[in-house]
Amino acid sequence: MKLGQIASIKSGLVLTRKKAFINFEIENIYNLITLKNIKDNGAFNKEPFETFESNKELEEGYFTEEGEILVRLSYPYTAVHIDKGKAGLLVPSSFAIIKLRTADYIPEYVTWYLNSDQVKKELIKSQTGTAMSTTNKSILTSIDIKEMPIEDQKRIGKIQELYFREKELLDRLIEEKEKYYQAITNKLMQVNREGVVSYG
């Protein structure tokens, strides 16, 4: 089944047309999702969301909704699933917004599938541009999404969720180890400066 058959796909907002350049033009301020908020594996990181000062009220269709999928339109073409906690973010034109129109597929599975090596290779082959390789709505529409029973899709979604949690815990452990290493190094350097211990 083609992605375009099971979902609607549109690009995010071209921000330059709506940006307020001086204070009295500001109509509203929105939280904006950017490329730096997404890890290459399809998870959100802890980077704070930028704010966007708009010169007018923006259409609801350019804000994330629970169950949607965003796809980065430039390499590495990462897809990310929007859960309840990430709803209401303004989406710029560097992302495509995918909204499923059928109950035969769940967003967690489609996100996982779009992040597979097979799909990434297809997108690289069909990429456009030279300075910055990009994909577009037409190419995304033509991607084949493998049909699979809903229960199997849910299992895949659960496995991916557990993977993200485990990866986050491992990253946190590495971060703590780095802090510990730096603390030990600084202590040894301090001891050396005081003449208690000398190396070489």
Secondary structure tally, helices = 5
The topology string of helices and strands comes to HEEEEEEHHHH
The percentage helix is: 25-40%
Quickly give the structural class: alpha+beta
Count of domain modules: 2
- Rg of Cα set: 22 Å
CATH superfamily of the largest domain: DNA methylase specificity domains
Distance between the termini: 68 Å
What is the total tally of β strands? 6
Summarize the structure.
It contains five helices and six strands, in the order H-E-E-E-E-E-E-H-H-H-H. The model has no long low-confidence stretch (mean pLDDT 90).
How does this model look, in words?
It is a single chain. With 200 residues, this protein is α+β, with helices and mostly antiparallel strands. The protein has 2 domains: 3-147, DNA methylase specificity domains (Adenine-n6-DNA-methyltransferase TaqI, Chain A, domain 2, Alpha-Beta Complex); 149-200. The protein has helices at residues 3-6, 107-114, 117-125, 137-141, 150-193; strands at 7-11, 28-32, 50-54, 69-72, 79-81, 95-100. The strands form 2 sheets. It has a 4-stranded antiparallel beta sheet. The N and C termini lie far apart (68 Å). The mean pLDDT is 90.
Keywords:
200 residues, alpha+beta, Adenine-n6-DNA-methyltransferase TaqI, Chain A, domain 2, 2 domains, four-stranded antiparallel β-sheet, two-stranded antiparallel ribbon, 5 helices, 35% helix
